[in-house]
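Example record for the data management plan.
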Amino acid sequence: MVTARKQEETLQEVPLSVAAYDQELIERYDISDLSDIAKRTPNFTFSNNLGLFGGVPVVRGIGAPRTGGSASVGVFIDGIDTGNSSGINLQSFDVERIEVVRGPQSTLFGRGVLAGAINYVSRRPNLEKLEAEFSGEVAEHNLYRLEGRISGPVADGVAVSLAGQRRSFDGFYNNSFSGQDVGDSDSYSLIGGLRAKLGSENQGEVYLRLAYSKENIGQPAWHQVATNTQTGTLPNQRWYVGKLRGDSDLIAHNGDNYGQIDLEFYRAGLHFDYDFGGVTLASITSYNRAYQTQDTDIDFTRQPDIIAGTTLLGNFRSTLDVEIEDYSQELRLQSDNDGPLKWLVGGYYRKEDYRSLDFSPTAAQGSSSILAPTPNILTREIKTFGAFGSLSYEITDGLTLSQELRYSEDRISETSKPRAALVAGAFENKFTNVLPRTILEYQFSRDKMIYASVAKGNKPGGFNNSAGTGFSPVPDNLKAYNEEEMWVYEAGFKTSWLDRRLTLNASVFYIDWSDIQVNSQVIVGGFPVGITLNGGKARGTGFEAELRFQPDDHWDVYGGIGYSPIRILDYVDTRATNAGIKTDGKDQIAGTPDWTGNFGTIYSLPINDTATAFLQGDLNYRSTTYATEAGLAETGSKTTVDVQAGFKNGTVRAALYVNNLFDNRAIDSTRAYVNPSNYARTFIVQLPNPRQIGIRFSVKY
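Corresponding structural encoding:
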């Protein structure tokens, strides 16, 4: 079952492009984070994109082009917007199902779902019986992970659950300057649930989920790569042309005593559902609070302190404290019957408060080891209002027309107060939109259907208003950027064959995307300042197809392929043109591949009446991605193979695995960068996970 349209439907019945993983598949594929999902989902990739506060999901070539910008793919837990993907892996192990919905989902999910949505459906406490489970993992580079869960009834119609996770990892690489670990992490999380049935006939239910997680991450495994093309004598007249390569010997930094990222999350969700007989009332109330601290070396070199007058030119240290708090409320009233007419109406409100304090050292401190006594301060308030509804009618037997509509309003206000300023600069704007989706579907039989849809999505705009540049003379026309809009036209089919041993689903889509938010740069007071611009339009026609085949009871074959060649039009990367590099104005979106694909197989061999041995192999492919829309500096394509062998019975499962069997060392991502010491163009790269051998096990009661 999936709930991509706020109602329970089978995967083969829902007229959307959806990849879903239930508990059986999560265990079979050993899914523990968004990267594992991306390995098995066409047209979906996940990378931290060289961003410190969480990764960037990319669906159909659309993600978040600017690090720290608003998301284009929403991440939800039980339909509750998490704000971003930070910390999601620590609070997603206790899940019933994971759904990846491709295409704009704005009509029912709201903001931040321009390209798609990822919804984690949590495991509710068991009202019928006591259940317990324990699992763990041990792998190279001192990776240790332990998880446990217990759930069961405590009274008639009342049940509770408690789950916990502990994980530590030394990282794959070391600081070549000092030998200390790079990319190491240590984390733990707790999740509690309370579930109660209401009414004489159990027609109502209340579910409360509370979650807490904390993680410490070491200095990331990134390094600078010098340019290989120079068109002039100026520092910015340089570029890199060709495939960038990572080198672990170039990982060097000065952050051994401070290089770390601390993440702490509190999440609460309260769900109430009541069936009045043909009509159901649903309420979702949420509260989230996040504390995020970054204290890292951001020139990614061992360069010592270099001070020229009032300017710090070496050993750059970034120290940023961020607090994010949000509250949301959703109310829905929807039909609950088997008739030809189905409807839904609802309202939504969300308020988010963001505050960051930047204590990064400057030349005034005389050393990067001394933090600034007064911070740059940036605050942001976002209020989101939404009213939405859907109407679905079965015109004739098997032919159904659905119309969805949402009115969305985002009110965004920001203040920026650099440490030297006496007063804060203030910016505010309101973005409104009407977001429709129309779906026509025809169900030939229980096992075969076709559909076509037209949907509109949006992503709100914002301000070029970082605390360090809020008072810099950025031209007025660049201080704000507009929201993005997208129309997606899609058609697809879902089929099952051979007594449902073969499942084949596919969809084709055309994307019309306008006012794209892209990275750019302006010179302010002689210094380069990164900003966001609306970069024009993009177009693309693509497809995705997924297959699962079970030739017999022991053999399972699965795979998928995705193609999303999204090209930005009428936009030229000024960073490249300033370097003397010419582009054709039709360029691939930065950080997104054209092709993705996966193939896997599992073969099971019975040992006795209760135990089975299994052998599994998975291949994952993505085509090259580029550092910028100039399309010159690239990661190169990447293919990885994961294998595992193990056994399982009714209660125990154990497996020996090898990830990245052939030790492919192609870099994961790259980004254009400016060397702080001389403002010359460079690039930074994220080193990949090398081959890793480990053991996973689980015990269920």
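Summary line stored alongside the record: The radius of gyration is 25 Å.
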